[in-house]
């Protein structure tokens, strides 16, 4: 097959003519009579991880024109090579579409050969781009950069982490991952699962701090119908969901003591007993746990069971904070820029030396997640080809929001979203102070759900 094409054009004759022509040339062709339908089809294909190779998009359509469609759905449409089709008088528009990520345009009426040639050129361009990416990757390896699953790094500290994780992937032992918030604990767990012989089975993540204590036992081990009010049918627990695969117990330090005993028993006996059931069920689950707390201290304080600690800590992996591995920062920036360029359909080429200086000097309390968020924000906000200090968050530039940074006006000054987010952080901190850190009470004060509070606390790096 020469490739998959989506034709978005309101003219029936044009759709028919192009379909006949392209199918004859070996393309698999889909058509959409309106922009809205076309975007939906492209989004569905993306979701299935099988994006169209090419999209032929008419510039002039009733309702929404091709150019606005491209502008508003850049992330979805430009994962394919987009070719605009313009009638006389719309060529300027088609040219400006190229600024929004279209590969080229063709003017109507066109000869069949013109379309075929343009598609061939687009395919060559795409192949060259892919080859370029492959060569860059190879070069990266030669320059001492390395990868584990979807993680990238350059520092010696991370090199040891990846080596240990690769070893862990070969054995079904329990792994305990330590590290601050956003250091990549879940990604390491996914990598271990993905490289293990359980990769074809699910990895089920559980946030131990996100499930109310009363529901935890039934969430983890399941329940029988009628075991408690609301148990209207039998329900499998997360252990059973992960059968044959991996259960990732995130924030294991948040597990209440009552559950710690039960978890220990399951790990030792390899079987679970759903709430309200008299029988146990054998399970084959590999457990990977993670924590940002110092579990040894928790054991000393009596907040974490020592026997469970030793049972989990068969093999431990400690993820270093980002501030201690600055050589990873430029590489991670590059990695996230590519990701967000691709996702958002942008073309930011890099980070200016002044911005990189600030990024290297910043202490990164939120570790890699904070850097990832900063890069996404900068890719969205920058008007320039490269990220400069003005598009970095004020926490990193050390400036007051709205104050000029190196002669530019910080865009955060007018950002309602940034202001609301800041206020959200302040209110959550106050509610937690007010309630002496009691999250249930704090969530009531804030009028949000308990899980929502926990996820917001994570976002604002509040412990
Ligand atoms: N070395 C890396 N390379 C690429 N991306 C990374 C790397 N480390 C972390 N990330 C990204 O940073 C973000 C945070 O990673 P992850 O969720 O694994 O951290 P975590 O330690 O589990 O965080 P938390 O403790 O807050 O749950 C993710 O979006 C992840 O993709």
From TrEMBL:
SUPFAM superfamilies: CheY-like, Homeodomain-like, P-loop containing nucleoside triphosphate hydrolases. GO terms for molecular function: ATP binding; sequence-specific DNA binding. InterPro entries: AAA+_ATPase (IPR003593), AAA_lid_NorR (IPR058031), CheY-like_superfamily (IPR011006), Homeodomain-like_sf (IPR009057), HTH_Fis (IPR002197), P-loop_NTPase (IPR027417), Sig_transdc_resp-reg_receiver (IPR001789), Sigma_54_int (IPR002078). The keyword S-adenosyl-L-methionine does not apply. GO terms for biological process: phosphorelay signal transduction system; regulation of DNA-templated transcription. SMART domains: AAA, REC. Keywords: ATP-binding, DNA-binding, Nucleotide-binding, Phosphoprotein, Transcription, Transcription regulation, Two-component regulatory system. The keyword DNA-binding applies. The modification 4-aspartylphosphate is found at residue 58. Residues 151-380 form the Sigma-54 factor interaction domain. It comes from the Bacteria. Residues 4-123 form the Response regulatory domain. This is Two component, sigma54 specific, transcriptional regulator, Fis family. It comes from Desulfoluna spongiiphila. The lineage of its organism: Bacteria, Pseudomonadati, Thermodesulfobacteriota, Desulfobacteria, Desulfobacterales.
